[in-house]
Amino acid sequence: QHNRFVSDSKDKEPEVLFVGDSLIQLMHQFEVWRELFSPLHALNFGIGGDATQHVLWRLSNGELDHINPRVVVLWVGTNNHGDTPDQIAGGICAIVHLITNKLPRAHVLILGLLPRGKLPNPLRVRNAQVNALVQAALPSLPRASYLDVDPGLVHSDGTISPQDLYDYLHLTPLTYRSVCQPLHRAITALLEQPAL
Fold it and tell me: CA–CA separation, 181 vs 191, rounded Å?
């Protein structure tokens, strides 16, 4: 897939690049992608199972070499099994620095990690800590902003419904719509700013 992305990037001129794990990759399969993001000339470089180190490697090895998008949407970190919140947030920040170094006109939109699991569990706590650390690091990240896209997945009793996350990790079509509408607004606002 990485090699396909590199060759894809040679003949495309995306305004928006989506990078990350399966939550980015699967977005491409839903009507909401064609409706909201295809018209923005968006390219999807999501790979299922990717953790921050995989994305860092991919972006260092050709995926950014032939394109010049104005907005890069980054959604990665929930697959960093065995890593601490500090390590995951550090990985996300390293990716942002890499993107802004390689793409001098790009703004990076970091999406907050979603809660996961049917019931309260350590991964939910970890993801929330990562989000807090990334937001705290924003002042040191040039041309980056953070967007919380959780549409309210955790119910008052602490559960997550399979109607929202069908396997308590991946999004149903309805949840993608709830996530993508504010995301689309944020991307559009960035594209409307004067180019750097």
Answer: 15
Which pair of tokens denotes residue 155?
């119910």
Closest-CA residue to 91 (of 20, 1, 181): 20
- What is the rounded CA–CA span in Å between residue 2 and residue 61? 9
Residue 119 corresponds to which amino acid? L
Average pLDDT per run of 10 along the chain, which is 196 residues long? 85 92 96 96 96 98 94 98 97 98 96 98 98 97 96 97 97 96 97 81
Using CB atoms within 10 A of its CB, is residue 162 exposed (0-12), middle (13-18) or buried (19+)?
Answer: exposed
Q: Is 45 within 8 Å of 21 (Cβ atoms)?
A: no
Which residues are CB-contacts of 53 (< 8 A; sequence separation ≥ 6)?
80, 91
Residue entry with tokens 């919380």: 148
**What is the rounded CA–CA span in Å between residue 73 and residue 180?**
11
**pTM flag (> 0.90):** yes
Per DSSP, what are the bridge partners of residue 124?
Answer: none
* Whether the Cβ atoms of residue 187 and residue 40 lie closer than 8 Å to each other: yes
| 194 residue type, one letter | P
For residue 107, the cross-strand partners are 71
Catalytic residue numbers, as ranges: 22, 167, 170
